[in-house]
Request: fold
Amino acid sequence: MLALSVLFSMVLLGQPDGNLDSRTCFALLERESMAFQNITFVYEGRIATYPVKPESEPIESKFQGFYAYRSNVATLLDLYTLNANDSPDARFLYSLLNYKFDLLDATPDVLPRVELREPRTTAGGAGSLYFPRSAQRIHLAWFLSSLGGHDEHEYQYLGDEVLSGSRCHVVRMLRRPKPQLGAWEGPLPYAKLWIDLGKGGVVARMEWFDGDKLSLRTSFDGFYEVPVPGRPSVTIPISGLVEVFSESFMDRGKTVYRDSPTSEEHYRILRDTIKVNRDLRNEFFSIKRHALASSEEDLRALLDQLKNHPAPKPARRSPVSQAERAKRLDDALAEADRQSSRLDASVAASSEQFWTTLPAWILGAVAAISLAIAVAYQWRKKI
Reply:
């Protein structure tokens, strides 16, 4: 890592005023995105959602999951939500492979049995799994790999800033290549990145803007040098905080931006579970394969707990029938499909790279994709 830091410093010395020009910046970001052929790890976290009324208590929840990412954007997410006693109460599986996005409620406390359930499928691409509780909030390879050429992002160098004792170069750019935006409606999506050359060019902080409105901030506070056989080690973030400043109302087509966060998401990758450059073939990303067994030993205890001690369900005067529950889940997924289709219509897809839209109203899009989590979780509590 020291050799890389010296190399980057020499590169900067050859540039006017030590600025980080677009070519160098995008070379660093590409290196970060392609650091591994693939990576897997277990992670955990908690999320607090703040009601509009200041006197109201925040809604808090915890989660744990297994994440696998391959450099061609193939992704697997095995996500457990936890109750107040840190026991699992729901399990969801997500898979992205060959532009196909699959979702399966794999919680073993309702019929039909997990082995008899079929995943729900919609179109997908880079960013399909970027929603609360997902590891893509902290592992940014999917985002960095989706960037285009250095001259396609309205790149601006904003200067340098010290974060936690490290000097970072601050840049601003479109989150998507300008040619891909097409007939984009609303404020353009921008990203502001703090790039730490002392750590090999890793992104130390990221802010997303809709025009000039701050919608999301990701601040990393823990980093780890991952050993790579036969190559220099690579530094990645392993802990951080995501603050969301926007709130979307899909029924009204409106986004409200707050001065303080509407939610805070804390993430931590378990360092000892990180594995790189495994033999992850297409079959590995099959939801059906992982539905009956935990993806990693660290999560098997959670699955066993979920099977043997399902979360208690409070009584309800008018129980929801299985048919009604299935219909509601179908309606939720249909809405996600509708939203995804509307977003994808504004995006150009090529045979080499598929884009899913990361919209101006950040939580609106990810809520459409992750809607099934919250809806199914709430229905399960009512059944």
User: Anything to note?
Assistant: The helical segments are 2-13, 22-33, 141-145, 178-181, 287-291, 297-308, 322-344, 362-382. Residues 177 and 219 are 24 Å apart (CA to CA).
